[in-house]
From TrEMBL:
<dbReference type="GO" id="GO:0016192">
    <property type="term" value="P:vesicle-mediated transport"/>
</dbReference>
<dbReference type="GO" id="GO:0015031">
    <property type="term" value="P:protein transport"/>
</dbReference>
<dbReference type="InterPro" id="IPR027482">
    <property type="entry name" value="Sec1-like_dom2"/>
</dbReference>
<dbReference type="InterPro" id="IPR001619">
    <property type="entry name" value="Sec1-like"/>
</dbReference>
<protein>
    <submittedName>
        <fullName>Syntaxin-binding protein 3-like</fullName>
    </submittedName>
</protein>
<dbReference type="InterPro" id="IPR036045">
    <property type="entry name" value="Sec1-like_sf"/>
</dbReference>
<comment type="similarity">
    <text>Belongs to the STXBP/unc-18/SEC1 family.</text>
</comment>
<keyword id="KW-0813">Transport</keyword>
<dbReference type="InterPro" id="IPR043127">
    <property type="entry name" value="Sec-1-like_dom3a"/>
</dbReference>
<keyword id="KW-0653">Protein transport</keyword>
<dbReference type="Pfam" id="PF00995">
    <property type="entry name" value="Sec1"/>
</dbReference>
<dbReference type="InterPro" id="IPR043154">
    <property type="entry name" value="Sec-1-like_dom1"/>
</dbReference>
Length: 521
């Protein structure tokens, strides 16, 4: 039997993908925190799973000097261990270490198709930590690709206001080349069928700010859910907590459904007892749906029409919004809370690609945030235009797909920009001039049919060849729940290509606004 010793990061990593029972079945009887005081158990062997940092290595050495706490140590690092730390360990406790390995896994798999706080380091003006943060993110992306056994063609969005996407793409591409220079079979690994797109948050500032009405996105926007824990009241008035994660099968079924569909479900669920496995969770989801509907009816419904008109640029009947200020004013005149007004003002500004300084000041006064104008002004640090520029190099918006023939709810007409990009990438329609490859493009995607010449059977269209391929998107600066949903939707619609989306962290509208407000603090 073994003791497992974890740091903060590996605790989060393991709890995101396995349970205590899984560990026990592998012979682990105790799980301990590396940085806490622990009683010595000299008859037991210890497995250390930790990041290769000076703090972790020092804590490890202290376990064996002056007197060993455990019989032996099996050390597993999440990432490459710098030589100086490795030498320090060797010098101090070589005779106690039975195994020392680096297992590339420095990313957090939050959901089956989503992997995730570097926001301030990247976007704070004159940040000293920018380069180091991009370096760390690049390492994490490489470990993800390595875990998936993919060597993707790396692409980035050209001409974004900040050049971070380009920088990150270059770092990732170089690190992937080094990583795959010599793999275990001592031969160089060639590019696989995957594409990796690096997207900057500024590409779509609208999606994380809108009131989104699918179950998961709406819940994390309107209800204080911390660490996926939802607190709800039982009929007798007592409170209970439920964990909303991949283990909860009903949550996985419901999370991407529109609230209108979810609220139609409780009746069906209470009549239909064919799901005994879901019964304990029913009350949780019914309670959550009721919670959300009360928010919706109280104030969100009023906001949604204006928000959708501003975001889409047209009303539910398809009439173009000629004067966005007329759409915004009713929101400003209604006693909505300040955050909701800020969100509407931002959508107004985004719809115009920036506004005049005079107009901006009037809006800030109207919302009464003269002392907190950073909620609006600081978006410029993300490369989002807040003040309109008369220059000919003005910000170009991503052209949108026409989805007017798709049936949607009037309060949910907006589609995240990233969904257009995913669909275009899967169909091989992304323009190389807008989305250049960092180095070579995997032959399957380059249109030259270089691979198909080697296929014996007839009629192998590029679609057949890309079957089973992966599209990995990484959003620098955070990803919203609605964008995560798009990865599932596009995968579901194109059975041939799996879409995986990752980011530095997951955004909620209020959380994002606070992060942006704090950028110049």
């Amino acid at each position: 039997n073994y003791i497992l010793i974890l740091d903060q990061f590996t605790t989060r990593l393991l709890s995101s993908c396995c349970k205590m029972s899984n560990l026990m079945s592998e012979g682990i009887t105790i799980v301990e925190d590396l940085h806490k005081n622990r009683e010595p158990v000299p008859e037991m062997k210890a497995i250390y799973f930790m990041r290769p940092t000076a703090m972790c290595v020092d804590a490890f050495i202290n376990d064996f000097k002056p007197k060993p706490k455990y019989k032996a140590a099996y050390v597993f690092f999440t990432d490459y261990c710098p030589d100086d730390l490795f030498d320090k360990m060797k010098k101090n406790c070589a005779k106690h270490i039975k195994v020392c390995k680096e297992i590339n896994i420095s990313f957090l798999p939050l959901e089956a198709q989503v992997s995730v706080d570097s926001f301030s380091f990247i976007y704070t003006p004159n940040s000293q930590d920018k380069d180091q943060t991009l370096e760390t993110i690049a390492n994490q992306i490489v470990t993800l690709c390595s875990t998936l056994d993919e060597y993707p063609g790396v692409r980035y969005k050209k001409d974004s206001a900040l050049d971070y996407g380009n920088k990150l793409a270059e770092l990732v591409d170089n690190k992937l080349a080094r990583h795959y220079e010599l793999d275990d079979h001592s031969k160089k690994k060639g590019k696989t069928q995957a594409q990796l797109l690096i997207v900057d948050r500024a590409l779509d500032p609208v999606s994380p700010i809108l009131h989104e009405l699918t179950f998961q996105a709406m819940a994390y926007d309107l209800i204080p859910i911390k660490d996926n824990n939802y607190e709800y009241k039982l009929k007798d008035g007592s409170k209970k907590e439920a964990l909303l994660n991949e283990e909860d099968e009903l949550w996985v079924k419901l999370r991407h459904m529109h609230i209108a569909e979810v609220t139609g479900l409780p009746k069906i669920l209470t009549c239909n007892l064919m799901f005994p496995i879901f019964l304990p969770q029913k009350t949780v989801h019914v309670s959550l749906a009721e919670d959300l509907m009360s928010h919706f009816q109280k104030n969100v419904e009023k906001l949604c029409k204006a928000e959708q008109d501003l975001a889409v640029g047209a009303d539910a009947e398809g009439q173009k919004v000629k004067d966005p200020m007329r759409t915004l004013l009713p929101v400003l005149l209604h006693p909505h809370d300040t955050t909701d007004k800020i969100r509407a003002v931002l959508l107004y500004i985004f719809s115009l690609n920036g506004t005049t300084a005079e107009n901006l000041n009037k809006l800030i006064q109207h919302v009464k945030i003269e002392d907190e104008s950073g909620y609006i002004l600081n978006w410029k640090h993300l490369g989002v235009p807040i003040l309109s520029t008369p220059s000919m190099f003005s910000f170009r918006k991503q052209p949108r797909k026409d989805r007017s023939d798709k049936e949607t709810y009037n309060v949910s007409r907006w589609t995240p920009v990233i969904k257009d990009i995913m669909e275009d990438a899967v169909e091989n329609k992304l323009e190389v001039k807008d989305w250049p490859y960092q180095s070579e493009c995997p032959s399957v995607w380059n249109g030259s049919r270089a691979v198909s010449a080697r296929q014996k059977h007839k009629g192998s269209s590029p679609d057949d060849l890309r079957s089973g391929s992966r599209l990995i998107l990484f959003v620098l600066g955070g990803v919203s729940y609605s964008e995560m949903r798009c990865a599932y939707e596009v995968t579901h619609a194109n059975k041939s290509c799996e879409v995986i989306i990752g980011s530095t962290h997951i955004l909620t509208p209020r959380g994002l606004l606070e992060d942006i407000y704090n950028l110049d603090k």
